[in-house]
Amino acid sequence: MSSTLFTPALARSKPAKLTVLGDSAPWKGTIIEDAIPAFTKETGIEVEYIQLPNEPLVTRARAELTSGSTTSFDVMQMGASMIGWMHSYMADVNELMKTAGGKYAADFGMDEFSQASIDLASIDGVQRGIPYRSTTYILHYQPELLEQVGLSAPPSNFAEYLDAAQKLTEAGKPNRFGVGYCARQGGAIVDHFGPYLLSSGGGFYDSKTKEILINNAESVAAVDYYASLLNKHKVVPEDALTWEWDEIIANAQNDRYAMGITLNASATPINRSDKSKTKGRWQWALVPGRETIADSRSSLGGWSFAVPSAGANKEWAFEFVQFITSREWAKRSMEKGNASARLSVLNDPEVIAKYGFTKVMADQLKTAIANPRDAYWGAVEAQLRAGLSKTLLGQASPQDAMDEVAAGWERTMRRAG
């Protein structure tokens, strides 16, 4: 590897500042608090990271990217759900690699990323972003609590999951419940439902044929089971109807539930933070399957960093992207709640020993299924949020709610052609 930090070609066009547009989730702590100051120290370039809630983020990005003008941001934090419409406005990573001249260009290690994470940042075989965060859902559980109710292992199927949840809820009365999940009609509700849907053999829709699956027998059974945990069996706290990403973590830290199928990276603040009353009590397993663990499936998502084709500082923007997604910073990012997309990090013995969940995460990635990534997904996902919320609130049966969602999806896809 060259000892020279930057090539002359990059140095001649060095900007005073780079701007990154991203969401407001807290998993970027390492980037903002540590990597950006290090990048500025090495290059002299200031970096402004504009953080917006997801919907305003998409609104601003769409307005600028479709305007035909130079974008005000140099780097885009691109979610898996965004690439369906955003990909044509992002530079081809392979083309950027050809002219990259920073210190990571010669030995970046693209082959260390999971193929699933590469696929999430690609459309039609063209890679548009460098993966940073790979998100799948795994079972978090407190083994000591399971042992107290006579269970020596985490549940491997839905029947065992319900049985454990009932026993744990009874033992934990009145404050601790068997299961936690995000039930607010917001950004987390669909992703938290996803593992239950996929492990039931259900699905959303076929992106190629546009066959709608959300109201078939398997999918409706998944909605029924999911909602029954809250409404019928009451093994989920009622205030889960207000929970999103921050709340699922905070309530685990405050010992409000004994098990939860939630984000892999949530393990770090739940099990390692000094703020957590349950620090050190958690372990992890694959998501239970409908009948057996062989049915286990999980949602797959993630974030990558991309360079807009209409950006003013593409070479330096890509240097920043390579900097924050490098081996060094990928490994360091785990401490502040990231889940690296680099398999070399997930399988690092030091990382496994320190964080615990990464081996389970790597195993769950083998059968994880990405949400649709086409141009429809943003609109139809919002309709599914509403349908799930109606079921969880008891305002509609699972079949009626999903039939309504399916009808809405048909209209959306028909209008879009």
Description of the molecule:
This protein is α/β, with parallel strands linked by helices and about 425 residues long. Helices cover about 45% and strands about 15% of the residues. It has 19 helices and eleven strands. The strands form two sheets. Strands 1, 2, 3, 6, 7, 8, 9, 10 and 11 form a nine-stranded mixed β-sheet that branches. Strands 4-5 form a two-stranded antiparallel sheet. Helix 2 links the parallel strand 1 and strand 2 (about 45-50). It is globular, with a radius of gyration of 22 Å. The model is unreliable at about 1-10 (pLDDT under 50).
Total helical segments: 19
- Tell me the radius of gyration: 22 Å
Residues in helices, as a percent range: 40-55%
Describe the main β-sheet briefly: 9 strands, mixed
N-to-C SSE series?
HEHEHEHHHEEEHHEHHHEHEEHHHHHEHH
> Shape from CA axes?
globular
Relative strand content: 5-15%
The average pLDDT score comes to 93
Oligomer class = single chain
Low-confidence stretches: 1-9
Task: List how many beta strands DSSP finds.
Answer: 11
Structural class: alpha/beta
In angstroms, what separates the terminal alpha carbons? 50 Å
